[in-house]
Amino acid sequence: MLEVTCNDRLGKKVRVKCNPDDTVGDLKKLIAAQTGTRYDKIVLKKWYTVFKDHIKLSDYEIHDGMNLELYYQ
Amino acid sequence: MGSKKHKKESKKRKHRSRSRSPLDGEERERKRHRKHKDRKKDRSPDVEEVPVDSHLEREAEPSPAPSSSSSARRHEGRDKSQESERDSSPTPASGSAQESLSIEETNKLRAKLGLKPLEVPEKPADDGKFKDDLGEFYHVPASNIAAQKKADKLREKLAERRDKRDIDNKLQTSLLAEGSDDEDASAWVRKTRDMEKQKQEAAKRAALLDEMDEVFGVGALVADDQHRDRQEAYHQEHLKGLRVAHTLDALPEERETVLTLADKEVLADDDEDVLVNVNIVDDEKYKKNIEERKKARTGYQAYDEEADIQAALGYSRPVLAKYDDEIEPSKGDKTRGFFIGDEDALMEQKLKDMMRAELIAGGPDKVLESLQSTGLRPASDYLQPDELQARFKKVKKKGKIRKKAKQEPIDVEEHEAGSVPLDTDDTEISQEVTAPVLDEDEVEVDTELQAALHRARRLRQGGDQHRTPKLEEILQQIKEEKTEESQEAGGSMVLDATAEFCRTLGDIPTYGLAGNREHTAEIMDFDREEAEPEPESGASGGAWSRVDVRTDRPADLEHEGASGAGLEAEPALGAGVAGALRLALSKGYLERDGALPAPRPTRSSLAALAALHYSIEDKTYGEDDKYGRRERGGHSGPLSEFREKSDFRPDIKLEYVDDDGRPLCPKEAFRYLSHKFHGKGPGKNKQEKRIKKAVQEGLMKKMSSTDTPLNTLQMLQQKQRETQSPFVVLSGAKRDAPN
Question: Basic residues compositional bias: what residue ranges (chain B) (predicted)?
Fold first, then answer.
């Protein structure tokens, strides 16, 4: 289990617990459940890397306590 | 099914919102306080919903793995009962900084989304074992060093305490004061009395036993036995083979020396007993120290004479003997000394000593030459004091002796010639060598006399030149000369100091002329008859000049005239043209022809003046040596090639003439040559100037010396002749003119 922090720098900051073998899409759904934003409107980024939905968090080497940037499309 | 659930949820939501509103409100309030004011706006109703939703999910899923919807539904039936519990205890996760769900809530959510539940990391087992990252191996936990140290310290402290306690137990004795506290004085007295009684009893018993022994004669026997035992146990024979640690020389013969067994270590493996004398040991130690100090000072010696001698005596040649003591300190001690009773060894030792002495002293033809060189030392830039002394010897002054001589002048008069040699300080003159010492004044007079005679002879010869000498006269002359010479030889002259003094006073012209000075005539008494034939007496410094009245001619006039006085008689005019010419020549009116007004003194004419032992070639030799081949290269030979021309000294005179044939002075000549050399003449102005100068010079030469250039004098004379008056009237106006 790992916990990532997602922050759009507009006032929303959520901490989401997830598994390392979850896909980014799953993470987005969890975020959506916590924030109330539709998951298909969420974009997760780290610097200029836009995380793709079908790839696992472990493949992106997302670890416990990481900060992800939360954007909307 | 989905719709039904939905309906239920909405219903529950209402209910929950009602039931939990105070708590939610409180929570929100707390959050508002913490968050920024701007964020309040962002708090949309959507966000508010999330915790509500999650709470619902949590209530629905108390167990960690309810994946099926049926079970979920089953649990939902109990929701109400659990809800009350949840209300009272809110989850700790909801109170965190961000909105974060607990694991259970997340799992619920995940189940809803169709995801597998979270993998909660199991608690590590309490056995202290840790799995590695791969989860395969257990690792032994690293020991905590700090804890270990602490434990060690603690243990040490405990051990110390225990030891202390043990020692205290062991040493528990009654103190002196404490002990005496127990016994009173009477007890102590009793005790001492007991002890005394026991002692007395023991002494009595011993005396009794002795008495008994004596009675039976055992005592003497025992004493005798003891003595004999000791005798048998140790006598002279037993000393044989014992080593004495000193040389035989060290033991003084004249008195007894007490030897004792040397100390040795208790654990020493060799049990040899050695006899020593303490005093001699001390002496040896002292000597050895001194020797070692010397050795240390010498350092390494390439040619150790001591070692050579050792080798010659048959001992093994020591290698770096000075370290022997460090390698094996007691080695030398063990071999030293002699064995008592071992006569052969003693003899051998003695022989070796003798040989050694012989080696050192050497045979009759042995020359000792040390191979040890004196140590190198840095050369000094300055003279050493001893060198200085060697270089400069102080010259002994002779001043003192001279002084003495001055104080006591040798009286020459007193010393008769040939009687006693004069006392001179530096040279000894043997009796035979000393020539008859003449009076100084006598010598001087002699030279003067000689000069006078010589002059007279010359004069006479000069006088005879006029007439042709006849044979008779010549003969006569010879005869006269002979007599003269004989007279000279035999002629005695009496001179004394007074006469000399008077003579050197200078010539007083009137002296003796008046005839009142009779004695002087007497003093200067030549034999008149003999002196008279001498016609001469040249003026020799005014002394004794005698003019012969018979010869009228002045003494040396002609001769002196020849020697060239500046004043010549004016040649007389009137002996024809030649006389006139000679006058003109002498007065400078005429130039001597050949343009040689005063012929330069040539070198040949000055040859008499030249130094005899000096020539220009001497100079050239030096120069040849000085810059010889170096400057001129190899192509020039020696400068003094033509030795046979050594007296060839040409009279060289450099004269230059210009294009017109005029002679040039050296300055002009240089200018002329310089122009020729550079191929570039002087400028036009310069040339004009020069020409003008030359013209002027020519005019100057032509100028009359007796008249002005305008012939004023001539005109004046003409005028005077015309007017026949010795004057001329000078006037500016014509009317004033007399004519």
Answer: 1-19, 30-40
**Is the Cβ pair A17, B113 closer than 8 Å?**
no
Q: Which of B603, B469, B449 is nearest to B526 (CA)?
A: B449
Look at the pTM and tell me if it is higher than 0.80.
Answer: no
Closest chain A residue by Cα to residue B111: A30
pLDDT tens profile B76-114: 444 444 444 444 444 443 434 456 778 888 888 888 888
* A16 bridge partner residues: A4
Give me the residue from B50, B113, B119 closest to A35, CB to CB: B50
Given CB atoms, is B64 within the 8 Å cutoff of chain A? Answer: no
* Calpha distance B51→B25 (Å, rounded): 12
- In the 8-state DSSP scheme, what is residue B435? P
Residue that terminates a domain, selected from B359, B389, B422: B359
Q: Which helix (H) or strand (E) holds B641?
A: none
Query: CB–CB of B313/B352 below 8 Å?
Result: yes
CB B86 within 8 A of CB B55: yes
pLDDT single digits (tens) B201-258: 999 999 999 898 888 877 778 888 888 887 777 777 777 778 888 888 788 877 888 8
Closest-CA residue of B relative to A15 is B100
Q: What are phi and psi of B479, to 5 degrees?
A: -60, -45
* Chain segment B128-145, per-residue pLDDT in tens: 666 677 777 777 778 899
Options 3.40.50.150, 1.10.3720.10, 3.10.20.90, 3.40.50.300; which CATH number does A2-72 get?
A: 3.10.20.90
* A33 with B50: Cβ contact below 8 A: yes
A32: closest chain B residue by CA: B50
Residue-range definition of the domain harbouring residue B713: 662-724
DSSP B338-366: EETT-HHHHHHHHHHHHHHHHHHH--TT-
Radius of gyration of chain A (CA): 11
Q: What is the reported pLDDT for B177?
A: 60
For residue A8, the SS3 value is strand
Residue B702 lies in a domain: yes
Residue B224 domain flag: yes
